[in-house]
Amino acid sequence: MTFEQIMFYVLAAAAVGSALMVVLQRNPIISALYLILNFFCLAGIYLTLHAQFIAIIQILVYAGAIMVLFVFVIMLLNLGDAQALKAKLTWQRMLAVVLVFGLLMEIVYLFTMPEATTAVLDVDRSIRIGEVEHIGTQLFTKFLFPFEITSVLLTAAIVGAIFLAKKKLD
């Protein structure tokens, strides 16, 4: 086993463990912290798969911006009462058990399926696709026009938001 494979399995186990803790925690703030840990584990898994750009975006967007919004919403909702968080309908629990059983059967099928039916991957091409340099080259050559149109639309949206906010202040 290589170091990358060991790190992949360690990060995958940590991601599964932190995902379970997100669901099993009663305190929503602690649950949100476990979700941040899960996002960092996923970023590490992306790094072991040579997808550096996606790993950095995972940390910046999800662990950074989205989780700040989650924590603010949790604090604003004031979910201190544990009784309000209890599930009252038993059909939801039965549906969850059935879905988990189906997921486990899919995982067992994937691990027991013969090797001949799995697709052969072009490893060098897949490593190159995940690099920031390749994404930048594609973005500023092949997809330059859509990129520029997006920047013009975002600039127009910012100017419109400032115009509307200024009009309300007057």
What does this structure look like?
The protein contains seven helices and no strands. The protein is mainly α and 170 residues long. The protein folds into two domains: 3-121, Four Helix Bundle (Hemerythrin (Met), subunit A); 131-170. It is extended. The relative contact order is 0.06.
List keywords for this structure.
2 domains, 7 helices, 170 residues, Four Helix Bundle (Hemerythrin (Met), subunit A), extended, mainly alpha
DSSP E strands, number: 0
**Shape, please?**
extended
| Helix and strand pattern | HHHHHHH
Count of alpha/pi helices: 7
- CATH fold description of the largest domain: Four Helix Bundle (Hemerythrin (Met), subunit A)
CATH structural architecture of the largest domain: Up-down Bundle
Tell me the number of structural domains.
2
The CATH class label of the largest domain is Mainly Alpha
Q: How much helix, percentage-wise, in residues? A: over 70%
Beta strand %: under 5%
